Amino acid sequence: MTPAAILSDVHFEDLKRYVLNKTGLSYYEDKNEDLAARLARRMGSLQAPDCVRYLQLLEGGVAGGHEMECLVGELTIGETYFFRQREHFYMLRSTIIPSLLEKNASERRLRIWSAGCATGEEPYSIAILLEREFGSRLMGWDVSVLASDINNEFLTRAREGRYTEWAFRATPHDVRHQCFTRRGNAWILKPEYRRRVLFRRLNLASDQTLLGLTGMFDLIICRNVMIYFGNDLIHRTVARFWDSLTPAGWLIVGHAEFNADLFTQFTRVSVGDASVYQRPLPGIPVAEAEPRIYSPSLEPSLPHSNGVRAKKKAPPPVAPPAAPIERPEITLQQVRDLADRGSWQAAANLGRQLTGSQPLSAPAHFTLGLILESMASPAEAERVLRRAIYLDRNFALAHYHLANCLQSEGKEAQARKSFQNVIQLLTTRPGTERVEHGDGMTVADLKEMAALHLKILEGHERTT
Question: Domain residues for 242?
């Protein structure tokens, strides 16, 4: 069936209601055309003649369950990468994991749940962090990371542990080379970083999902998943997370999911640019908590002064002027290499020098903007990315990252316009074509990611 035929089918609403109730993906509630287009692909592959026949198939036992999994693959998009939202990983290293090691020292057990793990980058990032930063302290501990998603195709890819360059755009160069093995154009995660991660299909829309998980987890990470849910399901999910956490357990959600009305039972804890929630200990009132920082910053720090003021020395004799030093030309690759190694501040400093010496280079401004975005400096990143777009109006990936910055700044109308620009720029380009500076990303990939963000923004505007 064509999308138009599906929309005109008298049983379309019955099919839609069944799918949304089963998946919880209520952002399709008012997107009939988009839903029909995705249904048409599955119904066409099965040669289902109408909506009622397809609905009967979905309701039909094992075969229906398999088809629902295939349909979910059409309805969901797993846009993620390693160490996404670095401010959360800073807080994990500096505050959350150390606090859990202290709390659980007697039982020597640690349970973490990555809910909505997509293709595995998030739970594997946590496993890498645990092994590299806390491996010696976790010797003899019972540690596990449950990684769940509704999309079986994503889970299959996650279990393979195979990733392309694009998944490492926020990963230090040394982490990639120490934790992964290069095979052709792919990177394979080494076994020692996979052993603690268990992948499992779970549907957060199902009331059966969290049965038996009461008080099991010390940390739950569910970022940018609940933005697809309706209000009732969001409230039920937050309540289930509360029940699943141990006292003093932690909950990390996406920046767009903070809502004072939803998390009234939790204590909000902030470190730097990151804010997360903690289940209070019994008898402890809910309040803004002063976090305890257990380990130093992830960024290189300057030596501390010992508080003793040095004696003022006489100025040295004036030397004759030296011949000017000829400095080597800064290259874009040098900036990218610093970013790949996780030396963000050094990369930003060198990037500013590069854009100063090459003010008309759109790729130079784009790279600096990407670094600033990764450093959680959206306002400065916005300014630099706008300069890249001014120099090259057709720079689709610059438009996409500008939209991300605008969205994180709460400028939703401007973000929506920028995501629309991405789709418009890519409309006439073949889906298999590689995106400039996208490290292997295709035109189809970027269009789909922009379209998903656009749907989320449009849905949010209708509810506010």
Answer: 86-278
Q: Average pLDDT of 150-172?
A: 87
Distance, in Å, from the CA atom of 290 to the CA atom of 275, rounded to the nearest integer, reads: 12
Q: For position 163, which CATH number holds?
A: 3.40.50.150
CA angle at 331 for the pair 326 and 334, rounded to the nearest 5°: 110
Mean pLDDT taken over the chain: 81
Residues 234 and 103 in one domain: yes
* Edge-to-edge strands, sheet with 162-163: 162-163, 186-189, 180-183
* Domain contains 323: no
- Partners of residue 198 on adjacent β-strands: 146
How many domains does one find in the chain? 3
Dihedral angle computed from the Cα positions of residues 409, 413, 417 and 418, in that order, rounded to the nearest 10 degrees:
0
Choose from 7-16, 24-33, 120-129, 455-464 the range with maximum mean pLDDT: 120-129
My answer on whether 267 and 345 are in the same domain is no
pLDDT of residue 106 exceeding 90: yes
Q: Are the C-beta atoms of residues 346 and 338 closer than 8 Å to each other?
A: yes
Q: Has residue 296 been placed in a domain?
A: no
DSSP state, residue 318: P
Return the pLDDT at 124: 97
Residue at token pair 């990470």: 221
- Residue 142: which pLDDT band, with cuts at 50, 70 and 90? very high
349 and 255 share a domain? no
Q: Take residue 220 and report the two structure tokens written for it.
A: 């739950």
| Same-domain status, 417 and 356 | yes
**pTM beyond 0.70, yes or no:** no
Residue 432 scores a pLDDT above 80: yes
Q: Which backbone phi and psi does 392 adopt, to 5 degrees? A: -145, 95
124 and 267 belong to one structural domain: yes
